[in-house]
Structure formats: C-alpha cells, structure tokens
Amino acid sequence: MPITRFTQSVFTLPDGSEYRSYFDLPAGEQPCPLVLILGGGPGDARIASSAFRIHGEALIDRGWAVAAPVSSTAKSFRGTEGEKVWQLIEAIRNSTDVDDSPVLLLGISNGGISALEMAAMHPGDFRGIIALPAIVPDTVALSDLAGVPVYLRIGSDDPLGWGECFDKTVARLTDAGADLDARLLTGVKHTVQPDWDEIDAWLLRGQ
Q1: In which band, very low, low, confident or very high, does the pLDDT at 1 lie, cut at 50, 70 and 90?
Q2: In which band, very low, low, confident or very high, does the pLDDT at 113 lie, cut at 50, 70 and 90?
Q3: Which of 29, 51, 138, 185 shows a CA-CA span of 20 to 30 A to 169?
Q4: What is the mean pLDDT of the segment spanning 13-36?
Q5: Residue 69 and residue 72: Cα distance in Å, rounded?
Q6: How is 10-74 classified by DSSP, letter by letter?
Q7: What average pLDDT score do residues 107-130 get?
Q8: How far apart are CA 17 and CA 34, in angstroms?
Q9: In the predicted structure, residue 89 carries a pLDDT above the cut 70
Q10: Has residue 2 been placed in a domain?
Q11: pLDDT value, residue 79
Q12: Which residues contact 95 (CB under 8 A, 6 or more apart)?
C-alpha cells in the first residue's frame, strides 16, 4: 500500500510549544496503534524523512499509525528532547485517530539509544522497542525495563565498533529486566535492514 499522505506536520505539545513530525496512518482502519520512528544521527528533518520512507510504509501496511519526529535541536532525542517526544505522543493522540494503547518505539542507530533511554524513563508505558541497531553507553541509565519487549539487532562488522559492544549491551538490557530478543548479525555493517517476518512474529508474541 503506497504512502499517499506522507507529510511533515506541526503538533502543539502539552507545554504549549510546537514540535514537528512526519506522520501518516492507514486509511479506513482508525483508531489504530502508534509507532514512533526515531531516526539516527542528529534526528533532523532529512533523517526523519528518510527513516519514515524506509520503515513507515511497511508499518502502515500492517495497520500502524507512524510518526517520525524531527529533533528540535538536531542533537538526537536524548534527555530533554526525549521528554518533548514523550509529550508528542499525547499531542498526536489529541489531534489524530490513533488509539490509547501503549506506543511501539522503533529506533535506528542513535535513535535506538534514545528509544531505550525513553522507555527506561517511562517504564511500563511502551509496548516494545525495535532497535536497528542500538547500544547502551555508560552515560545512559537503564533504571527499569522490567518485562519490556526489546528486539535488538547489531551488525558484527559495524565500522563504529557496535558489534564489539553487543555482549555488554545484552548484559545491561538483561540486568534492567528487558524481555530481550537480541542477535548479532554476521557480516552486517552499521545499517541493519528490518526482517519483517521476524518482527511480525515478535510483535505477535508481545500481544
């Protein structure tokens, strides 16, 4: 199903500020659950648009409303920027036909780190995290991910060295209580392509 209404929208957050996000939802299937796609790098408009186009169509075809936030600082979605994304969820619910079920997070690279941090800051409020890829730097506090499903894939040949961080990342997520499905992909570099058959099965297990 092609995306026909893919556009960048401006949402008013509960604190009164405005926040930009690419947004689309499946036609004729409202209300529907929401997935946030957190792009890599600085999370700027170019990256958000690319992340939406690469992953959004498959998710919309599966009945999800999709939002790809644009970082207001162009410094990813960590810290206070992550809190703005948290407010964005409420703003989307207040102005579109998405349901009030827990939100799915899909984080890419730096966005994967942000997704893990956000879920740890709001334990119990997300249905799961898809991280393609992510690591857990020492600066990220994972206070509580008890029972949160996490689908993690990291390439063994990642030129940034993330493959070498796989065991440590798995250990930290396990210690935080995550329901972890993790795999190191042999021969894969930094960019991890989604295996939608695997992800579909993983999502079904979490229902």
Answers
A1: very low
A2: very high
A3: 51
A4: 90
A5: 9
A6: EEE-TTS-EEEEEEE--TT--SB-EEEEE-STT--HHHHHHHIIIIIHHHHHTT-EEEEE--SSS
A7: 91
A8: 21
A9: yes
A10: no
A11: 83
A12: 11, 12
Q: Tell whether 89 is covered by a domain.
A: yes
Give this prediction's pTM: 0.93
Beta-ladder partners of 68: 22
List all residues 6 or more positions away from 55 whose beta carbon is below 8 Å from its beta carbon: 37, 66, 106, 108, 194
For β-strands 149-155 and 179-185, DSSP reports them as parallel
Number of domains forming the structure of the chain: 1
Distance, in Å, from the CA atom of 155 to the CA atom of 128, rounded to the nearest integer, reads 21
| Contact assessment for residue 150 and residue 114, using Cβ atoms and an 8 Å cutoff | no
Give residue 75's pLDDT. Answer: 84
Hey, what are 46's tokens? Answer: 């170019």
With beta carbons less than 8 A apart as the criterion, state whether 35 and 61 touch: no
- Single-letter code of the amino acid located at 178: A
Please tell me the number of Cα atoms within 13 Å of 99 on its side-chain side.
11
Residue appearing with tokens 């929208």: 9
The pLDDT confidence band at residue 200, using thresholds 50, 70 and 90, is very high
- What is the domain range of residue 61? 7-205
**In 72-145, where do the E strands start and end?**
103-107, 126-131
Is residue 1 one of the residues assigned to a domain? Answer: no
Q: Supply φ then ψ for residue 198, to 5 degrees.
A: -65, -45
- Collapse the DSSP code of 207 into the 3-class scheme (helix H, G, I; strand E, B; otherwise coil) and give the result: coil
- Does residue 163 fall inside a structural domain? yes
